[in-house]
Amino acid sequence: MDYAAQLSMVLPEIVLSVGGLALLMIAAWGGQAVSRLVSWVAVLVLIGAGVALTGPASSGGLAFDKLYNADLFGAYAKVLIFFAAAISIVIAPRFFARTSGEDLRPEYPILILFATAGMGMMVSANDLLTLYVGLELNSLASYVLASFMRRDVRSAEAGLKYFILGSLASGILLYGISLVYGFSGTTIFGDIATAYAGGEGAAKLGLLFGLVFMFAGFAFKMSAVPFHMWTPDVYEGAPTPVTTFFASAPKVAAVALAVRVAIDAMGPVTSDWRQIVIVASLASIVLGAVAAIGQTNIKRLLAYSSINNIGFALVGLAAGTAEGVAGVLTYLSIYVVMTLGSFLVVLQMRDADGKPVESIASLSGLSRTRPALAAALAIFMFSLAGIPPLFGFWAKFAVFEAATRAGLFPLAVFGIAASVIGAYYYLKIVKTMYFDEPAPEYGRETNPVEGGLIAAAALFVSPLGYLLIPAIGAWSLAAAKTLF
User: Fold this and answer.
1) Name one GO cellular component term (predicted).
2) Do 162 and 143 form a contact (C-beta atoms < 8 A)?
């Protein structure tokens, strides 16, 4: 295959990297005055990267001596990542202008672009080194984003915690990679699968330990229990647009990466990694639900909600089938919209002076002071709880059906039973908005862009979303089958 054809397969990452570098130069020369221009151009760069997926980037196959895999599975995940990244950029300028009293610094959208380029490499990696380079590109940009408000103590603390714990997790992952390489003699996923299929004695044991350490690293990146400890503190301390980004795009990238490694590189030992995934899934579902009950901060509650939802997504991975992977992709598609909608509502939580308010108690009586906002948040909460007929129910149904078809009936039963616990804290939010005495009213200043995005997200997760099931189901299944 000629070099130009291979470059066309990585065109989305090229667009993001070149766009980010060009905007970095513009920001260096233009300073604060070009921040809004840089933001909107960054959104156009993400749209351009999405358009680039329509060519060989979604169907070209292996490139660069099998280091990179341009397939439909990676393209599906990238669409979700690019979409979440674009929304996180669009909502940022107004937040920073009202919170810090100054316009958004142009480094923010540039860091988002570089993080997104790293995530693109992650979900298309076909080699352990490509995997690690993409993951670290995403992580290094994310550490800076978490502490983006330098004068805010909570933001600085969030960035420091994320950096320390993220470095530890990267070390664990790298140790697992070194074990897998050492006992297989290769870093290519297909060759690693061959080594797992034929491993015996010490080599088999070494590869098994490598598997465990690698999945521990993945669990941290997707904030699955027991490597979830960073999530509530980072989500609470980071600026809300950054938290919106963390709760959506990197989650998709981490889960998609884990799925690709599990199926492509470790498919012959499905019975071994399935045990890890099942334990992480059940622990995340239960802890995410129980720990959220006592939260008083809406961002911390949504952090535990993300842990809970990752547990449900892992149910589909545990199935280890094409239908299970399709269920994971379907779940991620709906989860991204529900999460973005929820955090868009959090952005509207400001007092009369325009200062952010994050306490759940401040939502009291919201149905009487801001009925449209309360209705939207209620839709997102009911959908996250998986209550029919909202679209979130279909997300859970997809992964549970895949688990039962794979013979994991006890896992599906336990997951369904545990989802009842999670419904409690979602319903508590709805009860606070509709039945408690009104708290001081939020500021009335509105933004048509944010309002339109909230309305669009609410319509997507409403029963109208079921009209999209044929399209989402067909695309997700086709993407999943490229791994098998």
Assistant:
1) plasma membrane
2) yes
Quote the tokens at residue 103. 């316009």
> Which amino acid is it at 283?
A
Q: What is residue 61's three-state secondary structure?
A: strand
Which stretches of 92-211 are assigned E, i.e. beta strand? none
- C-alpha span between 159 and 355 (Å, rounded): 22
The pLDDT, as a whole number, for residue 43 is: 94
Same-domain pairing of 229 and 321: no
Q: What pTM did the predictor assign?
A: 0.94
Q: Is 223 found in the same domain as 277?
A: no
Rounded to 5 degrees, φ, ψ at 136 are -70, -35
Tell me what percent of the residues of the chain surpass a pLDDT of 70: 98
- How far is it, in rounded angstroms, from Cα 455 to Cα 436? 24
> Which parts of the chain have pLDDT scores under 50?
none
* Predicted pLDDT of residue 419: 86
Q: Is 297 helix (H, G, I), strand (E, B) or coil?
A: strand
Range of the domain at 118: 1-265
- Residue 97, pLDDT score: 79
Element (H, E) at 68: strand 68-70
Last residue within a domain, chosen from 219, 247, 265: 265
Q: What total of structural domains would you count in the chain?
A: 2
Place of tokens 């909460």: 381
Asked whether the bond before 448 is cis by omega within 30 degrees of 0, the reply is: no
Q: How far apart are CA 238 and CA 267, in angstroms?
A: 37
pLDDT value of position 93: 85
Q: Are 306 and 247 a contacting pair, CB within 8 Å? A: yes
